[in-house]
Amino acid sequence: MEDPKHRHIRSFVLRQGHFSEAQTRAVEEGMPRWGIEYRPEPLDLQAAFGRAAPKVLEIGFGMGAATADIAAARPEVDFLGIEVHGPGVGNLLKLIDDKQLSNIRVIRHDAVEVLAHMLPDASLDGFHLYFPDPWPKKRQQKRRLVQPEFLAGILNKLKPGAYIHMATDWEDYALQMLEVLSANPALQNSYDGFAPRPAWRPLTKFEQRGLNLGHGVWDLMFTKRAD
């Protein structure tokens, strides 16, 4: 049984879901090409992508459509996506093949462990977190990923001048994100409060549906101070 003293906030809730035939085939064919196996040892990011380029980490890419669109729009940047949801991993791998993308790599594992054991300090130029599980009930909110301890772990992996971009459609979570990010002296808000959605972050179908219903979406953009 897990020692309660050593529990950490996981970056996911494990939902296996149903694999389509195409997603199953994409995992079988795509993971050997674009996947990175979890190992508790430092990962050489330049070797993993086969080039020297800015590296951006995304945690929880869902079905991967936005990730693939962003990678297609920013071919000069390499994107490392971490996700545990199998059909989502399969769908992103299919999109990589469909769009002929070479600047995405995928790890299917708990992001907290990947951060702790695989990513070298000061190795990332950016970090994306889009629409994480909001855990809306009051008693659940301690499970939210964006907490000071998690943020400190992310900051260790970012280079000076690197950016953090988050988005959520839950206002109270947006306010919590803003509070946690603003409270860290190593970060500087790139805007006065919330940020406009950057042109390279596409609207997801889910997000567009929410906007059509009058729901809000909040973006945050911070940079790691150079000093």
From TrEMBL:
Biological or metabolic pathway of the protein: tRNA modification; N(7)-methylguanine-tRNA biosynthesis
Broadest EC class assigned to this enzyme: transferase
EC number(s) from the headed UniProt entry: 2.1.1.33
GO cellular component terms, semicolon-separated: tRNA methyltransferase complex
Residue positions binding substrate: K137, D169, T204, K205, F206, E207
Protein residues bound to S-adenosyl-L-methionine: E58, E83, D110, D133
Keywords, comma-separated and alphabetical: Methyltransferase, S-adenosyl-L-methionine, Transferase, tRNA processing
Superkingdom as given in the UniProt entry: Bacteria
SUPFAM superfamilies, sorted: S-adenosyl-L-methionine-dependent methyltransferases (SSF53335)
Catalytic reactions of this protein: guanosine(46) in tRNA + S-adenosyl-L-methionine = N(7)-methylguanosine(46) in tRNA + S-adenosyl-L-homocysteine
Function: Catalyzes the formation of N(7)-methylguanine at position 46 (m7G46) in tRNA.
Name by which UniProt lists this protein: tRNA (guanine-N(7)-)-methyltransferase
Gene from which this protein is expressed: trmB
